[in-house]
Design brief:
Pathway: Metabolic intermediate metabolism; (S)-3-hydroxy-3-methylglutaryl-CoA degradation; acetoacetate from (S)-3-hydroxy-3-methylglutaryl-CoA: step 1/1. Its EC number is 4.1.3.4. One of its GO terms (molecular function) is hydroxymethylglutaryl-CoA lyase activity. This protein is an alpha/beta fold. The chain has one domain: TIM Barrel. It has an 8-stranded parallel β-sheet with strand order 1-8-7-6-5-4-3-2. α12 packs across α13. The radius of gyration is 18 Å and the shape is globular. The mean pLDDT is 96. It binds 3-hydroxy-3-methylglutaryl-coenzyme A. 3-hydroxy-3-methylglutaryl-coenzyme A (HMG) binds next to α5, α6 and β5.
């Protein structure tokens, strides 16, 4: 039974942006076939997910696991949910070359990704933060001209694997730059999962000086087991979009030691308990997570999923 929350600060509905097929698999060392990725996407749709980041138009030399981006997009075109627009499939596009590939593949939503740390920006996309913003300008202009929505990411919002602590003001500066350029939503990534709730609150408060909380998403990796607590803190501040990854898949190729995103199953379990709507069927979601985990030869990294699977 879904209990209605008595905390008036919490939203009544949350948008989940599923990271599994992209952030979740980009760092996977073993090959994952295009067919398995597509089957995962089918199962996530069946579970009720409406925003599924499908792939990344990045260099296959840098991220080999995303090299089948053209095949993924070609297959998605035949999905009824892509045709009728009932499910969004955003894809990463770090530059104009990536955007052109995504557009040719029929993308209706793309995402540019910056960082709040200079060192991470260099390691991840081979340029400074300022250069990355310059690179995004023509991408966002071209997207606007084509009626394509653009999401923006800021990585390392609560810490950097190379620089340590990151000032909330720096996060705010980069988030503002993305929002001012025309990103409809800015996702704030705790890339290495080091944050704790008070730090998360301070960071959101700093960003909210420039970007309305209704336009923010939180993107927590669960390296230190703090993701759900951090998400709750962000929900209380008015953030109502959460990035998460089925079965807790993932890790970033340029963030050594970072584990996956918070598991979508754990997030949905918590939100169900709070009486917050997501439109996602937890049973089907757990099955989708079990499917991809079996393909990868391991158990889901989700407490809720493992507990529910054990009951079967
Ligand atoms: C950004 C680049 C491309 C710059 O890479 P670069 O080497 O600086 O680019 P370049 O413009 O000098 O070009 C070099 C070569 O790359 C090619 N190239 C150039 N652009 C593309 C493209 N779009 N797609 C495919 N190929 C491309 C280009 O054509 C050329 O090919 P060559 O002539 O040598 O054969 C590179 O650094 C890259 O691909 N990095 C990968 C970044 C990445 O995917 N990181 C992981 C995702 S971000 C993340 O996970 C964080 C997030 C979002 O989840 C939030 C969080 O948790 O914090």
């Amino acid at each position: 039974m879904v209990m209605v929350s008595d905390n008036p600060a919490l939203p009544t509905h949350v948008k989940i942006v599923e990271m599994g097929p992209r952030d979740g698999l980009q760092n996977e060392k073993q090959p994952v076939s295009t067919e398995v990725k597509l089957e995962l996407i089918r199962r996530l749709i069946d579970a009720g997910e409406k925003h599924i980041e499908a792939t990344a138009f990045v260099s296959p030399k840098w991220v080999p696991q995303m090299a089948d981006h053209h095949e993924i997009m070609a297959a998605l075109k035949s999905f009824p949910e892509a045709q009728d627009g009932s499910v969004w499939f955003p894809v990463l596009t770090p530059n104009l070359k990536g955007f052109e590939g995504a557009l040719a593949g029929g993308a209706k939503e793309v995402a540019v990704f910056a960082a709040a740390s200079e060192s991470f920006s260099q390691k991840n996309i081979n340029c400074s933060i300022a250069e990355s913003i310059e690179r995004f300008k023509p991408v966002i202009e071209a997207a606007k001209a084509q009626g394509v929505k653009v999401r923006g990411y800021v990585s390392c919002v609560l810490g950097c694997p190379f620089e340590g602590n990151i000032a909330p003001e720096k996060v705010a500066e980069v988030a503002k730059a993305l929002y001012d350029l025309g990103c409809y939503e800015v996702s704030l990534g705790d890339t290495i999962g080091v944050g704790t709730p008070n730090k998360a609150r301070a960071m959101i408060a700093a960003v909210a000086e420039y970007v309305p909380t209704s336009k923010l998403a939180c993107h927590f990796h669960d390296t230190y087991g703090q993701a759900l607590a951090n998400i709750y803190a962000c929900l209380e501040l008015g953030v109502a979009t959460i990035d998460s990854s089925v079965a807790g898949l993932g890790g970033c190729p340029y963030a050594p030691g970072a584990t996956g995103n918070v598991a979508t199953e754990d997030v949905v379990y918590m939100l169900n308990g709070l009486g917050i709507e997501t439109g996602i069927d937890l049973t089907k979601l757990v099955d989708a997570g079990a499917y991809i985990s079996e393909q990868l030869g391991r158990r889901p990294v989700s407490r809720a999923a493992n507990a529910l699977l054990a009951k079967k």
